[in-house]
């Protein structure tokens, strides 16, 4: 049996038993927040529970390391859409301890690409066309630096609305304990929130 077969079998029972009813919500985030976090599997259920987020409370975006690699890529576009069109009023970037992005090695990944059939010619063509795979697959120095990179990219984005609090946090992937590394209220000079 394949993963897709398992998923579809489960889905049929899920719909027939109306298990979806507990997840019904609107398209606008109730808590008016957009969360950018890592795609780490340990955070799939842990992060929302640790942050007291239920279905419909937040827009949750995931990317490797919670790192925004391009100021005009899909992650930044999604944040801006959430702020301008979907009633989000704050952004929280949540990285985590023991993140694979802190030890990511571009040469190692490209070696695995070669092992799986990507030719040196393709890699060289991409590099010569300006893609610079070594930079694109580069990891971060540490988890805090990765979060602050994303926070700063959001705060300094030319299309960012003024005064939006952008927070940075780290979560422990074992316990769910959250640590604030950048308080967006303080950064905006509004400690009263």
From TrEMBL:
Keywords: Metal-binding, Zinc. Its cofactor is Zn(2+). It comes from the Bacteria. It is an enzyme of class 4 (lyase). SUPFAM superfamilies: beta-carbonic anhydrase, cab. Belongs to the beta-class carbonic anhydrase family. PANTHER family: CARBON DISULFIDE HYDROLASE, CARBONIC ANHYDRASE. This is carbonic anhydrase.
């Amino acid at each position: 049996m394949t993963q897709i077969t398992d998923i579809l079998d489960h889905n049929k029972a899920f719909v027939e038993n109306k298990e979806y009813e507990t997840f019904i919500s609107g398209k606008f985030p109730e808590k008016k927040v957009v969360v950018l976090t890592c795609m780490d599997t340990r955070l799939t259920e842990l992060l929302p529970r640790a942050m007291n987020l239920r279905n419909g409370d937040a827009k949750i975006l995931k990317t490797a390391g919670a790192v925004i690699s391009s100021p005009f890529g899909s992650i930044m576009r999604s944040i801006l859409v959430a702020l301008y069109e979907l009633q989000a009023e704050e952004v929280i970037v949540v990285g985590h301890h023991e993140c694979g992005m802190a030890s990511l090695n571009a040469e190692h990944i490209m070696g695995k690409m070669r092992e799986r059939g990507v030719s040196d010619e393709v890699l060289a063509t991409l590099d010569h066309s300006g893609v610079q795979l070594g930079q694109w697959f580069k990891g971060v120095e540490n988890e805090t630096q990765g979060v602050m990179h994303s926070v700063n990219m959001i705060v300094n984005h030319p299309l960012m609305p003024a005064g939006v609090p952008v927070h940075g946090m780290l979560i422990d992937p074992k316990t769910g304990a959250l640590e604030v590394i950048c308080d967006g209220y303080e950064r905006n000079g509004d400690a009263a929130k």
